[in-house]
Amino acid sequence: MSEAKLQVDNLSIQFINDGRTTDAVRNVSFSLGREKLAIVGESGSGKSTVGRSLLRLHPASARISADTLRFGDLNLLDADEKTLRSIRGRRISMIMQDPKYSLNPVMTVGAQITEAYLAHHRVSQREARKQTLEMLEKVHIRDPERVYSLYPHEVSGGMGQRIMIAMMLIPNPEIIIADEPTSALDVSVQQQVLSVLDELVTQRNLGLIFISHDLNLVRNFCDRVLVMYAGRVVESIRAADLDQAQHPYTRGLLAALPSLTQRRERLPVLQRDPSWLTD
Amino acid sequence: MAMIEIQSLNLSFGLDGSRVQVLKDVNFQVREGESFGLVGESGSGKTTVLRCLAGQYSHWEGELRINGERLGRTLDRDRCRRVQMVFQDPYGSLHPRHTVETALGEPLHIHGIGQHRERIGAILSKVGLNDSFRYRYPHQLSGGQRQRVAIARALILEPRILLLDEPTSALDVSVQAEILNLLADLRQREGLTYLMVTHDLGVVAHLCSRVAVMQHGKVLETLDTNDLVRGEASDPYTRMLISCSQHKSRDRDCA
Fold it and tell me: Would the CB atoms of B244 and A221 count as touching at under 8 Å?
């Protein structure tokens, strides 16, 4: 954690629609080293917005301000489009939620991964194809030659997500932002995808931002957790210490989970406190 | 007395060479007033069982009985009044250009039931919404509120059985807790029978008293939730599911 790959101080994001301003993210600060950082929260808490703002993937109606938004020695805040294009995918890449919607349905998966590689590396088609097949093997796809020529609708959800991971890792980025990468998948397949992701992140020494709403999953998979509520970070805690969380929101979320081992008549419903918005 | 009885249910799609059998000899019974869970991975056929009961497929083979009566292959009004379904995704299951009132009034209209205003008001308060929601469109509701409307729509014909297809998987944990509490209350108050499909064993343990585990179109085993919680499942696949949902860890014992 000595060297931070990414430093964010007081990040705020507003959306302006019809003259009305919505504060989506307020004063979020964190730093990311070679670690697995989770951002958790309910829908609408701004967790995905934070992830997207790092790559400036927002529509023009978004206004981003921050004291620092630094990636390596680069200031992301005043980077121009050209610089950003050289970062997106190449140095910071993003894994989306649902492979069914984020893969191109009319291109074979192999061609899509090759395209990602060729966009950032000047090599021959042949070399790119070779790299793609190697990458497919690294995400534990058994028969890469066969899978290369399949279309997204011909692969299962778990395999689709591993293909996404392959596509995002092939340009060899330094940071990966994974936005709910397993929530569209079955429990049994989730583990498979997570272990592939874990293996590659550890092997290549990457920084991972893991956006999720699943506290149980995050608890075991990540090193550190940021809990967001209504656009702010209400708590930052080591994943292993999640049981000793201080903030009532984090504790409420944990208590609301139905569990196999502790069965209760009624699930405690989260009582929201208006002071969480201002503290 | 069994409220839902499923005997050697078989279903296949496609013809001759490309024929795929998706349900293979499915058998189970759900008692009156019971909450029964169906778990398994996607593609295991759990939703397909619900769809057969709901009348969305008509070419199944075998025997389906509701309250002792044999079900025909076609839907009739009588069946709709006894069995209703709540779908997984409240963002997709409500008509985007119908208000809550129109959505709830339609079943009443089809079945020729009067007193729309009073019935809609009563059902809204039953699911924890008030009258101010009556003229709202789905996009003006949160996910949890939408699912409440979807539950209200299923309940407005006063069915005895609710088929629940992953009713909380599209919702946040905090909202999931509210909907699960609501479902538990409604079952107790109205004496409903639930057949719930889910892949979350925590949800099953919370709401259901018995569970059937499905894989590749077959029921592997049917067991009491208490046994499930105590880890007394006999089938290796069930054990794998349990260990996955307990650990959700990076060790790869369930990969």
Answer: no
